[in-house]
Specification:
The structure holds two protein chains of two kinds.
Chain A (H helix, E strand, L loop, with lengths): L2 E12 L2 E12 L3 E5 L6 H8 L4 E8 L2 E2 L5 H6 L2 E4 L11 H8 L6 H14 L1 H5 L10 H13 L5 E5 L7 H18 L2 E5 L3 H7 L2 E6 L2 E7 H6 L1 H8 L2
Chain B lengths: L1 H31 L6 H17 L4 H24 L7 H23 L14 E2 L3 E2 H23 L1 H11 L1 H6 L4 H27 L6 H15 L4 H21 L8 H15 L14
Antiparallel strand pairs in B: 1-2
Helix pairs in contact in B: 1-5, 1-8, 1-9, 1-10, 2-3, 2-4, 2-8, 2-9, 3-8, 5-6, 5-8, 6-8, 9-10, 9-11, 10-11
Classes of the chains: A alpha/beta, B mainly alpha.
Chain lengths: 237, 290
């Protein structure tokens, strides 16, 4: 299988504080990888660096294109959809307007209408609430909307920043079930950042363990699940 | 009764100008969270531009539309050159820049066109509507109404309008769906400069053309924006009409106010709204669930 994303020596910083100290990782086409690590390890920053939201150095090859010098808006146009920490929906706009904005970079009217139906298929509750202000959705619904909006881009890769944050276990399971389906049916590659390590290990194929801006260990999810030392010392279960 | 009707109609006509300025202010406020103090001076400068075009023989309506387009370009230019580098600067830096722009435009107009008061032509015939209100005021009302309707449709129905709203509401998420946020802010400046230009060109035949012509009107604009809700474009427009009517009625029927203290009414409105209903009469606090 060929590589969708290839990252070498990625450094990122906020103002003068360096957060990432040159990390390497990759993602296969249609693959699922997860970034694990304690608070402040640089997981969210890694996703932000991929999208050009923080100042960064290194090389980021996506689908054969170098992204390191591109603006966020241009990176989006390459087919990377980022579901940000805290969901980032447009609270004053309706659910449907939010989804429509997700397809902002596209011009194929028929395709957009199809995708809208597809998103409503994955998340029927959004269809029921399509005319409501996004600010009135519950946490789970808002997360569904954030993912739905990302799908409207018809992305090749989805960046998910703690999609389980603040949600009830039942909703989390439902959400990850749908994400798995999207990954399998549409071959969308996914990079997942999660606090819930056991959940992430079940979901992903490949794992990168971050510690203070460096990748400490990487391997398959199965190897992580089987290695009790790693689990105990870094993942807390 | 006729006096009352006259004052109401004049209030609505003047209110349409305040509504334009209030809308221009709100558009920029929504994007960067600050009042643009230079809004009035930008409008004054545009009006002078139109005057120059007319005085070299360009027909009124051609000059009118050329001025709108030029103002748009200048607005975009100001955002790109002056405001863009200040994206992450503090509130104080923004305010200083606005005051700087205000005095630059004011002085520049004085240097280029002089400080003597000039008359500005009206595109509408002389005379009045049934003796109640001048035809210029009627025309002014309809021109601003057409513009406001156009802007409403732009934000309601077009892709770029939606993108501008999204960029102002949540710049980070807007970037992530592929909106070029910086350019949306620049477009916002362009629009508000154009709206101000229309207000300036429409009010100039009444207040006459001089570098300080917009100072008082901008205060009414601020009052309108605050009364209507500084975050609510529709409210700001309604606030404009309300301020226009209140100001006229107070000037006519409260002897102590008369025409000299009319501007004080605007200031009193600003203070009392901020004291008793800070989100404005038509503004509502954002509803979110946490």
């Amino acid at each position: 299988m060929s590589l969708l994303l290839e990252v070498h020596g990625l450094e990122a910083s906020y103002k003068s504080t360096k957060i990432l100290h040159g990390i390497d990782f990759c993602l296969e086409e249609g693959g699922v990888a997860t970034l694990l690590g304690a608070n402040g390890a640089g997981k969210t920053t890694t996703l932000r660096a991929l999208c050009g939201m923080v100042s960064r150095k290194g090389t980021v090859k996506f689908n054969g294109t170098e992204l390191i010098k591109m603006s966020t808006a241009d990176i989006t146009r390459q087919g990377i959809a980022h579901v940000p920490e805290g969901r980032g929906t447009f609270v004053r706009l309706t659910v449907e307007e939010n989804l429509r904005l997700g397809a902002y970079t596209r011009h194929d009217k028929a395709g957009i209408a199809d995708d809208m139906e597809r998103v409503y298929g994955y998340f029927p509750i959004l269809k029921q609430r399509h005319a409501q202000q996004a600010g009135l959705l519950s946490g789970g619904e808002a997360q569904m909307l954030a993912i739905g909006r990302a799908l409207m881009l018809r992305p090749k890769m989805l960046l998910l920043d703690e999609p389980s944050f603040g949600l009830a276990p039942l909703i989390v399971r439902e959400l990850f079930g749908i994400l798995k389906r999207i990954n399998r049916e549409e071959k969308v590659g996914m990079m997942l950042v999660e606090q819930n390590a056991s959940l992430a290990l079940e979901f992903a194929e490949h794992v990168y363990l971050l510690e203070t801006g460096n990748i400490l260990i990487s391997g398959t999810a199965v190897s992580f699940q089987e290695d009790e030392t790693i689990r105990r010392s870094y993942l807390g279960y | 009764m006729e006096l009352f009707l006259q004052q109401i109609l004049t209030g609505i006509a003047n209110g349409s100008i305040y509504a334009c300025l209030a809308l221009a202010i709100v558009m920029i406020y929504k994007a960067i969270d600050h009042f643009n103090f230079a809004q009035g001076e930008m409008a004054m400068f545009s009006t002078y531009g139109c005057w120059t075009l007319i005085s070299i023989g360009v027909p009124y309506w051609v000059a009118f539309f050329v001025t709108i387009i030029l103002s748009f370009i200048v607005g975009v230019f100001i955002e790109r050159v002056v405001l863009c580098p200040l994206r992450n600067a503090s509130a104080l830096s923004h305010i200083i820049v606005f005051i700087g722009l205000l005095s630059i435009f004011n002085s520049l107009a004085g240097v280029i066109w002089g400080h003597t008061i000039k008359t500005f032509p009206s595109p509408f015939p002389d005379g009045s509507f049934r003796g109640l209100i001048g035809l210029h005021e009627v025309g002014m009302f309809f021109v601003t109404m057409i513009m406001l309707a156009g802007i409403y449709c732009f934000f309601r129905f077009t892709r770029v309008g939606m993108a501008m709203k999204a960029a102002a509401a949540n710049p980070v998420s807007a970037g992530l769906v592929g909106i070029r946020v910086g350019w949306m802010f620049a477009l916002g400046w362009g629009f508000s400069a154009s709206i101000g230009a229309v207000a300036g060109m429409m009010i100039a035949p009444i207040v006459f053309l001089d570098p300080n012509m917009m100072l008082g009107i901008l205060l009414y604009g601020f009052a309108s924006a605050v009364v209507g809700g500084i975050n609510n474009p529709g409210g700001a427009v309604m606030g404009g009409f309300l301020v226009g009517i209140v100001e006229n009625l107070a000037g006519t029927y409260i002897p102590a106010i008369g025409s000299e203290l009319k501007l004080t009414v605007a200031l009193a409105l600003i203070v009392s709204v901020l004291l008793f209903k800070p989100s404005g009469l038509f503004g509502k606090p954002v509803v979110t669930r946490v």
